C-alpha cells in the first residue's frame, strides 16, 4: 500500500482506513491468497502472544510476502521462521552478547564510535550523506564487533545483504548474493575455529559447532541472520529518527531539555512513531482461534503490521503526532511474544547514544534538500531512506 504524498513517515492511509473499519480484515496477497490483516494493538499483541499462532513458514497457509521467499523457504530457515524447541534452542545460543549486562559493557565502545563519526562528519565537506557517513557505518561497526565479522569487508556484505533482502531484485541475482554471503561466512567460521577471538562467532564455532550442537549450515544461517538484522534495522532508525526530529524542531528541544523524558523514553517514542521493520509480522494459525468476533481457522495466514498497531489511538492518544513526552513503553517496533527482537538492548543502546549526542554536538544540523527529494525505500526488510544530504 502506498504512503500518502508528502507524508513519508506515516503508514499508508489505506492501512489506517482498514484499522478504522475492523480489528481484523481479509486482504489479498500477490499469490491470490487471502490472509487476515490484524490492524489494532490489542489484537496484534493477543495473536503474537498466542501459542496457536505460528511463525513457522513451513506450515501450510503461511503468507509469504514474495515468490522468492516462497520458493526458497526450505533452504533459508531463519530464527524468525522457527517455532518451539528448535527456535528456543537457537535463540538461547545467541542470547549471551545481548543481555543488558553485556550490552552495558559495550557502551564505551559505542560512545567512541558515535563520537568519532560525529567528528568525521563535522570535519568533512558539506553537504554530507547522513546515511552513508553516519547512520549505516555505526550499527555496522557495532554488529561486526559483536559477531567478529571484519568491518573492512562491509562494502561486500552490505551490497550482498541489500540485494538479498530487496523485493525489487530478480530472483537469480538475489540467489547469487545469498550464495556469495554464505561462502564468505562459511570461510570466516573456518578461520574462527583455527584462531578463535572474543566474539559471538568464535564462541558459537568453538562451543557449539565443535561439540556438534550446531551443524555448519545452521551456524552460517544464524550468523547471516544476525548480520542482516543487526545493522540495516538500526541504521534506518538512526536516519529516519534524525529526519523525524529535524521535521519537528520542538521535539529536539524536548530531547535536549532537562525536564524532558530522558533519551530512553525519547527512543521508545521514535521507535513507535517510525516502526521501521515493515510490512508486518507474518504468521499462520495452527488451530482455530476466536478473536474480536471473528473465527480464524487453522491454516489461515495472518499479517500483523505493527506500524498501525503503533498508531492505535486506543493505546497512544494523538498517535499521529511525534511526542517525546509520551509514555511509549507499549510500542511494538521490536515485535511481541516469543520472537521479540533479541538484539533490542543493543539497538536501544546505539539509538540512545546517537540521539543523546547528535543534536547536542551538531545543533545546526539540517536537511540539505527538500523532503520531497529524499529517496525513501520500502523494498527490503524495512522502511528507510537511501541517502539523506545534510548540512550544519
Ligand atoms: C532498531 C533496530 C531493530 C528493530 C526495529 C528490530 C525489529 C525486530 C522485530 C520487529 C523482530 C521480530 C520479528 C518477528 O516477530 O517475526 C526482530 C527480531 C529479531 N531481531 Fe531485531 N530489530 C532491531 C535490531 C536488531 C539488532 C541490533 C539485532 C542484533 C543482531 C537484532 C536481532 C534480532 C533477532 C535475532 C531477532 C529474531 C528473534 C526471534 O525470532 O526469536 N535486531 N527484530
Order of helices and strands: HEEHEHHHHEHHHHHHHHEEEEHHEEEE
Largest sheet: 5 strands, mixed
Strand content: 5-15%
Shape: globular
Please give the CATH architecture.
Answer: Orthogonal Bundle
Strand order of the largest sheet: 1-2-8-5-3
Ligands, deduplicated: protoporphyrin IX containing FE
Q: What is the count of DSSP helices, taking H or I runs of 4+ residues?
A: 16
- How many distinct folded domains? 1
What is the name of the CATH topology?
Answer: Cytochrome p450
Summed over residues and divided by their number, the pLDDT gives a mean of 93
Using only C-alpha atoms, the radius of gyration works out to 21 Å
- Stretches with pLDDT under 50, minimum 5 residues: none
Quaternary state reads single chain
- The CATH top-level class label: Mainly Alpha
Structural class: alpha+beta
Measure the end-to-end span.
35 Å
Helix coverage percent:
40-55%
- Could you give me the name of the CATH homologous superfamily? Cytochrome P450
Quick structural summary:
This protein has 392 residues and is α+β, with helices and mostly antiparallel strands.
Protein architecture, described:
By secondary structure, the protein is an alpha+beta fold. The chain has a single domain (14-391), classed as Cytochrome p450, CATH 1.10.630. It has helices spanning 13-21, 41-48, 67-72, 84-93, 100-105, 107-123, 130-135, 137-147, 154-165, 171-194, 200-209, 216-247, 249-256, 262-274, 306-309, 344-361; strands at residues 24-26, 36-38, 53-54, 128-129, 281-285, 289-291, 294-296, 301-304, 366-367, 376-377, 384-385, 389-391. The chain has a five-stranded mixed sheet with strand order 1-2-8-5-3, sandwiched between helices. β6 (289-291) and β7 (294-296) form a beta hairpin. The two termini are 35 Å apart. The model has no long low-confidence stretch (mean pLDDT 93). It binds protoporphyrin IX containing FE (HEM). Protoporphyrin IX containing FE (HEM) is lined by residues 55, 79-80, 91, 143, 226, 229-230, 233-234, 237, 276-277, 281, 333-335, 339, 341-343, 346-347.
Amino acid at each position: 500500500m502506498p504512503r500518502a504524498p508528502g507524508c513519508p513517515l506515516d503508514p499508508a492511509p489505506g492501512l489506517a482506513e482498514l484499522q478504522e473499519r475492523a480489528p481484523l480484515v481479509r486482504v489479498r496477497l500477490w499469490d491470490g491468497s487471502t490472509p487476515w490483516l490484524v490492524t489494532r494493538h490489542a489484537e496484534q499483541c493477543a495473536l503474537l502472544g498466542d501459542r496457536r499462532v505460528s511463525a513457522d513458514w513451513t506450515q501450510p497457509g503461511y503468507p509469504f510476502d514474495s515468490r522468492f521467499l516462497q520458493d526458497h523457504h526450505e533452504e533459508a530457515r531463519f530464527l524468525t521462521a522457527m517455532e518451539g524447541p528448535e527456535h528456543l534452542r537457537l535463540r538461547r545460543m545467541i542470547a549471551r552478547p545481548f543481555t543488558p549486562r553485556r550490552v552495558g559493557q559495550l557502551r564505551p565502545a559505542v560512545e567512541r564510535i558515535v563520537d568519532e563519526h560525529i567528528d568525521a562528519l563535522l570535519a568533512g565537506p558539506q553537504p554530507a550523506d547522513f546515511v552513508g557517513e553516519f547512520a549505516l557505518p555505526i550499527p555496522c561497526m557495532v554488529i561486526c564487533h559483536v559477531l567478529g565479522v571484519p568491518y573492512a569487508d562491509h562494502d561486500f556484505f552490505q551490497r550482498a545483504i541489500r540485494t538479498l533482502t530487496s523485493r525489487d531484485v530478480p530472483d537469480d541475482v538475489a540467489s547469487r548474493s545469498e550464495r556469495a554471503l554464505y561462502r564468505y561466512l562459511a570461510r570466516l567460521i573456518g578461520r574462527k575455529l583455527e584462531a578463535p577471538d572474543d566474539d559471538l562467532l568464535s564462541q558459537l564455532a568453538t562451543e557449539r559447532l565443535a561439540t556438534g550442537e550446531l551443524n555448519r549450515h545452521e551456524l552460517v544461517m544464524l550468523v547471516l541472520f544476525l548480520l542482516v538484522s543487526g545493522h540495516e534495522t538500526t541504521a534506518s532508525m538512526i536516519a529516519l529518527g534524525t529526519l523525524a526530529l529535524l521535521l519537528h524542531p520542538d521535539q529536539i528541544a524536548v530531547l535536549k531539555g532537562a525536564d524532558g523524558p530522558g533519551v530512553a523514553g525519547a527512543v521508545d517514542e521514535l521507535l513507535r512513531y517510525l516502526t521501521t521493520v515493515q510490512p508486518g509480522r507474518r504468521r499462520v494459525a495452527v488451530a482455530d482461534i476466536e478473536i474480536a468476533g471473528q473465527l480464524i481457522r487453522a491454516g489461515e495466514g495472518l499479517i500483523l503490521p505493527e506500524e498501525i498497531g503503533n498508531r492505535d489511538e486506543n493505546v497512544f492518544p494523538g498517535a499521529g503526532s511525534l511526542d517525546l513526552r509520551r509514555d511509549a513503553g507499549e510500542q511494538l517496533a521490536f515485535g511481541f511474544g516469543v520472537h521479540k527482537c533479541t538484539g533490542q538492548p543493543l539497538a536501544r543502546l546505539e539509538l540512545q547514544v546517537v540521539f543523546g549526542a547528535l543534536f547536542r554536538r551538531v545543533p545546526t544540523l539540517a536537511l540539505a534538500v527538500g523532503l520531497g527529494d529524499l529517496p525513501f525505500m520500502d523494498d527490503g526488510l524495512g522502511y528507510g531512506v537511501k541517502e539523506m544530504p545534510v548540512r550544519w
